[in-house]
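Project standup — Tuesday

K.O.: blocked on the structure for the chain from last sprint. Re-posting the sequence here as requested.
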Amino acid sequence: MNPADSAASEASNTPPLPSSPPPGQEQELPGHTDQMDPAPSDEMRNYRGRGLLSGKTALITGGDSGIGRAAAIAFAKEGADVAIAYLNESDDAEHTKNLVTAVGQQCLLLEGDLSSESVCIDTVGRCITEFGRLDVVVNNIATQQPVEDFREISTQQWMHTFAVNVHSYFWITRAALEHLEPGSCIINTSSVNGLRGNKTLVDYSATKGAVLALTYSLAQQLAERGIRVNAVAPGPVWTPLIPGSFPAERVGDFGKQTPFGRPAQPDEIAPSYVFFAAGELSSYYTGEVLAPLGGETLPG
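H.V.: unblocked you, prediction finished:
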């Protein structure tokens, strides 16, 4: 089979992008890909790398599924070895590893609760021990729990949301900085909710706003070291977090408010991470935010 035929065959196996929100459904957090209906497009089947990350090593938190999985596979197709950190979703993580190794790159699985400082430090250390270097850090894990009344947010929920969504980014980045050389980069996952807020995701939105401020501040501080720091702030994306945290009726409307009338698929978001990771594409970008929002525009 020639390359063109192979590409056509692979493309034919790729599910079409949906034209509407998913049907209503629920899961227990943290959520699992194989229970989602429809299955998300998160395997980058049509993506063609060209060696933009050849010889590099990346650490992606939340790399087992969703945006993290798609980014891991895209990085691998660009020539990078990938370490993925995740909570306990072993089936999803093993599937992602298989997809990475299938394109000839190494994949290190790092299970652990990154709301713990010691686990974050150990995660970076294990990555260095295995690969001997670290070039790209993607802080991507997140949790959310919607509430209708701000007073329903317990102190425990507030602290946990910040521990996962902000503190882990701080702990992972601080540990990684000992190993990052000039030309390395850090990519943080924020959210449209960090840009505009969300009335039922108050604590989550607050953390995503903090991620933006962290990105801007670190970009200024690390510029003199030649380390770029950027963020991706997507709108609605069809990942296990959605049926894992929203009631079925809200899932059934997820993404409907966008001009595209649907949520994004992880495959549509991952190229933003490749752009920031590849110095050939973004060497003059730091302190920037890419916001793939499905046609929505924000003032300011």
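K.O.: great, moving the ticket to review. Residues 155-176 form the longest helix (22 residues). Residues 146 and 201 are 5 Å apart (CA to CA).
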